[in-house]
TrEMBL record:
Keywords: Cell membrane, Membrane, Transmembrane, Transmembrane helix. This is MFS transporter. The keyword Cell division does not apply. Residues 18-392 form the Major facilitator superfamily (MFS) profile domain. PROSITE patterns: MFS. Gene3D superfamilies: MFS general substrate transporter like domains (1.20.1250.20). Its main location: membrane.
Amino acid sequence: MTATHPLSAAPARSHWLAVSAVAFGTFLLVTAEQLPIGLLAPVGSALSVSEGAAGLMVTVPSVVAAVAAPVVPVLVGRLDRRLLLVALMALMTLANAASALAPSYPLLIAARVLVGVAIGGFWAVAGGLAVRLVPAAHVPRATAIIFGGVGAANVFGVPVGTLIGGLASWRIAFGALGALALAVLFTLLAVLPPLTAARPVSLGRLGGRLRDRGVRVGIVATFLIVTGHFTAYTFIGPVLRDLSGLDERLVGPLLFGFGVAGVAGNFVAGAAVAKRLHRTVLAIAAALALTMLAYPVVGLTRAGGVTLLVVWGLVYGGVSTSLQTWMIKAAPHAVEEASALWVAVFNLSIGLGALAGGAVVETLPLQGILWLAGALFLVAGLAVWGARRNASLR
């Protein structure tokens, strides 16, 4: 990648401490977004709502993040991105403190709205920061580190937070997240260099990015892959139990293994996209499709189910890094705008995937979610294949 980001020239030296701090920020954000999954029962019991209603603690921030991702960069104009990231982490600190102290369910949901704003705004900016923090040759590795926080949240953040909620209380779990957010805030202040925006993001420029075919393909591929993943992954527990015949007590450890494989896949993809971006994204879509379509046949045994789960985690772990790199290369002069669109679609697809999976499970056999996910991955692969002649994406 030889083009420079419009917000700053290519950095003369690397800021790997800043890259690591931003990675810890993404770890915290994803943990905050998904932590309620493990706390639905205690929250519902404490605030006298059903587990289904408590599930809005996950849905609401995802939808809000999808809106905030393009809106926050537009609203802040030329504001130094260093100050923006710090302000968003301050908002995350406040939101988690409010969640821990919420006396009623409506106030808890209001706090989760603030979490969504912080997630969408922070991720939209952080996704494109690699080009501003390290020289061009190191951008894929720095991007992989930043998105390593996503996989680490699934492996460590959510399980540990759930454990804290079980041993102490769900309020302590949210309070601990607030304390970590405060620590990240001070770390970002200490290690991030000034990141002044030379050109503000505008709604017109955001729309203009969609006229670029490479950006459009990246958006479509993201929508299909993430929707497909969460269509199936939302119901991975029943799949492992009812199709593969695994004991329900093994689901937790197996999902931990899924997360570990995902962390490894993130860094494998980071190395691969530095050499062959298009082929890497195409291989990810194809491998996910094969895994999903093979599961109703090969995954009907315990060994087959476990093997395909690990493969699934390894391959999906490379999705964030590879698709973010795709957006950077598709719009090298408008990284922040392309990243904002990408984050919006990514978060919206999480919610849509869960909804689609739920609708299929209600009307079709459990295998239906695997067939649907496989079909979405196949269409994503076809969309990526169509961009094979784009020289900037090779």
